Amino acid sequence: MEFRQLEALKRIIDTGSFSEAAKQMNLTQPSISAQIGALERDLGCRLLTRRPGSVVPTETGGALYRYAEQILALRDKAIAACSRREMSGTVTVAASSIPYQFVLPVLTAQFSMLYPGAKFIMTEGDSASATALVLAGQADLGMVGTLPRSEELLCDPVMEDELLVVAPPQPPYINWPKNPVRLEDVLDAPFVAREEGSGTWAEVERYLERQGYGRGALRVVARIGKPDAIVKAVERGMGVTMLSSLAVAEYLREGRVLAFPLADSPFKRKLYILRRKGKPLPAVAETFARFAARPSDGE
């Protein structure tokens, strides 16, 4: 059993796809299939089941996945412990609004505790501009809220985020079912949207397409770039929106807005850390990329 095999298993289960996992590991699909085949032969059992459009773990595969998370996290901690004293330098990160405001501050603070010599330069934009900076070599890493459509990037999931329907605490929204809300009710309401290029907006469009609706289904009354400004506009009654649970947490605690999951299905997405394929990174940036993509272990 090798680290590379466990990493392949983890990425396939995370993405539900051999081809997507191969892209992320900069491998061919036959190569990553061979990794899994060798692992299954070593263990004498089947780990994955192919279904139309997806790959799912067997019961044994799911158990090994959980061990793989722990093993790979422990590997990264061991590497970090050995190199901590010498790790220094500057990491440039381009991020979209949600990870820039709510995820990167936590990750960089935790990383700086481990590596006091590390410094960060962070720029905020939308998902499209953050991705473009990484592709242009103007940022070591990117962090965005939607999976880029580029074969030039390696993309690792950092965490899962849920998009919620957010509404002002006033009629007719206070009469909506508390949990969940129907998509038809959202389509009937005025809608405050993120800007084009935003990862949140891209995920909203993809969700609507999966439900059989086109781009014009929402009654968009305004487009606003900053999540906090959107929540304030919703709070004051401009309409409803779909926004990250991270962006509305404080407003919810204070009772300033209402938030609902959608009735059709949980509206979840992943946040990703990006790097350009084939571009060597400084050791400190490489280590931060691994740190950001590590499984959460409660620390």
Question: What is the CATH architecture descriptor of the domain at 161-269?
Answer: 3-Layer(aba) Sandwich
What sequence of helices (H) and strands (E) makes up the elements? HHHEEHEHEHEEHEHEHEHEEH
Indicate the radius of gyration in whole angstroms: 21 Å
Portion of residues within helices? 40-55%
Stated plainly, the CATH topology of the domain at 161-269 is called D-Maltodextrin-Binding Protein, domain 2
Largest sheet: 7 strands, mixed
Q: CATH homologous superfamily of the domain at 161-269 - what is it? A: Periplasmic binding protein-like II
Distance between the termini: 27 Å
List how many beta strands DSSP finds. Answer: 11
Q: How would you summarize the topology of this molecule?
A:
Elements: H1 3-15, H2 18-24, H3 29-43, E1 48-51, E2 54-57, H4 59-83, E3 88-96, H5 97-114, E4 117-125, H6 127-135, E5 141-144, E6 153-167, H7 183-188, E7 190-193, H8 199-210, E8 219-223, H9 227-235, E9 241-244, H10 245-253, E10 258-260, E11 268-276, H11 283-292
Parallel strand pairs: 3-4, 3-5, 7-8
Antiparallel strand pairs: 1-2, 5-11, 6-9, 6-10, 6-11
Helix pairs in contact: 1-2, 1-3, 1-4, 2-3
Short description:
Helices cover 44% and strands 23% of the residues. It has 299 residues and is of the alpha/beta class.
Can you tell me about this structure?
With 299 residues, the protein is of the alpha/beta class. It contains 11 helices and 11 strands. It has helices at residues 3-15, 18-24, 29-43, 59-83, 97-114, 127-135, 183-188, 199-210, 227-235, 245-253, 283-292, and strands at residues 48-51, 54-57, 88-96, 117-125, 141-144, 153-167, 190-193, 219-223, 241-244, 258-260, 268-276. The strands form 3 sheets. Strands 3, 4, 5, 6, 9, 10 and 11 form a 7-stranded mixed sheet that branches. Strands 1-2 form a two-stranded antiparallel sheet. A two-stranded parallel sheet has the order 7-8. It is globular.
